[in-house]
Amino acid sequence: MRPRKSPFVARWLMERLGVAERNPPLAGDLEEEFQNGRSALWYWRQAVVAMALVSIGNLRSGRNLPVLAGWLAQIAAVCTLWHFDWPHPSLACGILLGLLYVPAGVCGLFVRRRLSEYASRRVPSLPIDAFLTASGTFVGYLGWYLICACFVKWTLYELAIVQSLWFAGCAVTRPDSDSRASSKLSILR
Asked: Rounded to whole angstroms, how far apart are CA atoms 46 and 69?
């Protein structure tokens, strides 16, 4: 009898968020129970609970604070832009912002890499890494808002839903894969 394959996306998310790495017995038990006849829905439910607990733990421990700070700064900027109805939805505006956002993103990655190299040559600096992570999150989320706002006129309700989804992405971001700051935070504790 061929073993059943557990839901790929659920497994991938658990690996991406570090659930399997932080709690290997849990990942093994989920896999074993699934092989013993549990449904895919059961597997998903268990995986979502495990991911939520890891995400809450990351926020409580402060590992995602730089990402959270960037997201909160972006909220203030987005609410201000939304209040003044900027940018107006138009295809030309979306294309222009998209064309500006790509080079800005490449420049941001280059600057971040250069500053990280500089920081690694001297005494490692937690504040520099935290600032770079926060600013990268801010620019990333703000850029996506600007591009999306060029194509869609959002109501306040829709804006709140999108921001909630982005917050969920921020909360579940695996900190040790996004910045060196989080690994330094865990070393310092």
From this structure: 29
Residue 112 has pLDDT above 90, yes or no: no
Length of the chain: 189
Own/partner long-range contacts of 32-39 (Cβ < 8 Å, ≥24 apart)? 34/4, 34/6, 35/3, 35/4
HEC assignment per residue over 88-138: CCCHHHHHHHHHHHHHHHHHHHHHHHHHHHHHHHCCCCHHHHHHHHHHHHH
> Is pTM, for the whole model, over 0.85?
no
Q: Is 148 exposed, middle or buried (0-12, 13-18, 19+ CB in 10 A)?
A: middle
CA–CA dist 26, 21 (Å, integer): 10
